[in-house]
Amino acid sequence: MGVEVSVEGLTKSFGSQNIWRDVTLTLPSGEVSALLGPSGTGKSVFLKTLIGLLHPEQGSVVIDGTDITQCSAKELYEIRKLFGVLFQDGALFGSMSLFDNVAFPLREHTKKKENEVRDIVMEKIDLVGLTGAEDKLPGEISGGMRKRAGLARALVLDPQIILCDEPDSGLDPVRTAYISQLLIDINAQIDATILIVTHNINIARTIPDNIGMLFRKELVMFGPREQLLTSEQPVVKQFLSGDRFGPIGMSEEKDEGVQKAEEAMQAAGIGGGGTKDDFSEIIPQVQPNPGMPERKAVARHRQRVHEMLHTMPPNAQEAIRRSMEEEDRMRSEADAHAADQDTENVPVGAAHAAGEWTPAHAAGSDYAGSDAPTQSWATPPVGQNANDNTVTQPIETGQFRQPNDGRSS
């Protein structure tokens, strides 16, 4: 099970530049949390402080009963073994192959034999869709592939706490969906505590159990996702909608004159360019793939939401109830699908029953990856009229595969 991370009164500065002050929050054990905020608000600095790479001026970070701001170097070394970290740029060793990058934590922190290391590394590489690229150097692959390799390395020790700094940056929308699903599946499997730093509003609305937001050197709020997604705070609403009209400016502190000019434009009916999505509706969370265990975090999260539900506005209460009903429906459908798989003796279901991780695309999806062979194409014989109903002849092309030159992200 994951480990609770308790942060109390945390303050961090670089010289005279204060990054954030008096940040207090608790990452509940075994739950997925997300941290939002405009660029430059210190979200990555916060992650680095959680693992002791940066030392705060004030406050405490208690992990598994140990305050890492006060502990010895030896104690900190042991605490770090609980973490898996996906850094914003992947942070791979440029002179090592992807295989050796992913294997590095195993070789550094365990005494496993090389054949065991290889089995574990190849499992994680397959998990993030990089099979066949394990011998390449980081400079020979795309930024998105480096990001996925960084995630494989973060998972290689089966950590109890996973920190992801913008896991979607450099990835196309499809791979972002796969990585998001993978994080949910991992949480279902090992009940890890996960913190995601992101600007991706779709991830924020569909993946985490809890959401926090940093703005103007302070934590605006942190709590169950339903609390932030139904918030009436102007800065929260502006960030979720991506509108330029609001407290957030090009620089973090919006000039008063600019704000008045924008208010005048709004009054004149000029839009701020934000999405028109109805954020009063809470989109149901992404569920684990069929055959995966049910997330233990769901019951713990719901209990907290029910306890605070009466304190929320009526429209928020109604949106939360609708969302929970929809999640229950989706969960029931997933359970029914998993039962069908067991009945049909589907190998993927058997792997799940054995407690093995499988790639996100292996269950509940017909997608076989960008290199999947085309099964057959049908084309009319030469000279045939397009309106002719003559049966066409298939051209079998299954033996051909798109070459993988490492440039896909």
TrEMBL record:
InterPro entries xrefs: AAA+_ATPase, ABC_transporter-like_ATP-bd, ABC_transporter-like_CS, P-loop_NTPase
Composition skew (Polar residues), residue ranges: 372-409
GO molecular function, one term: ATP binding
Cross-referenced CDD domains: ABC_Org_Solvent_Resistant (cd03261)
Record's compositionally biased regions (Basic and acidic residues): 322-340
Keyword Ribosomal protein: no
Pfam families, per database record: ABC_tran
Annotated keywords: ATP-binding, Nucleotide-binding, Transport
Limits of the ABC transporter domain: 5-241
Region (Disordered): 322-409
Gene3D superfamilies to which the protein is assigned, alphabetical: P-loop containing nucleotide triphosphate hydrolases
UniProt-recorded name of the protein: ABC transporter ATP-binding protein
Species this chain originates from: Gordonia hankookensis
